[in-house]
Amino acid sequence: MLFRHVINTFSLFAFAAALQAEPLSAVQYTLRFDDAVHHYVEVEANLPTDGAAELELFMPVWMPGSYLVREFSGDIDYIAATSPSGQPLPLSKTVKNRWQVTTNGLDRVLLTYRLYGWDASVRGNWIEGDFAMIQGAPTFLTLVENHQRPYTVKFVLPPEWAGTYTPLTPAAAPHTYTAPDYDTLIDSPILAGSPQVDQFVVDGSTHYLVTIGGGGIWDNARAARNFAQLAATQIKFWGGLPTKEPFYLFNLLGQNRGGLEHKQAFVMMADRWLSRTRNSLSSWLSLVSHEYFHTWNGKRLRPAVLGPFDYEHEAYTRDLWIVEGITSYYQHIMLHRAGFVTREGYLGSISGLIAGVENTPGRFVQSLSDSSFDAWIKAYRPDANSVNSQLSYYSGGSLAGLLLDTEIRRRSDGTKSLDDVMHEAYARYSGERGYTEEQFITLINEVAGSDMSDWIKQVIETPGQFDYQPLLDWFGLAFEDAKKTDASKLPNGLEPADGPGGWLGADTAVVNGLLTVTKVRAGTPAYAAGVYVNDELIAMDGIRLGANSEAIVQNYQPGDQVELMVSRRGILSTLQVTLDSPPAKSWKLKIRADATAAQTAHLEAWLGKADTPPPTQDTPAINAEMTNT
Question: Which CATH class for the 1-193 domain?
Answer without folding.
Answer: mainly beta
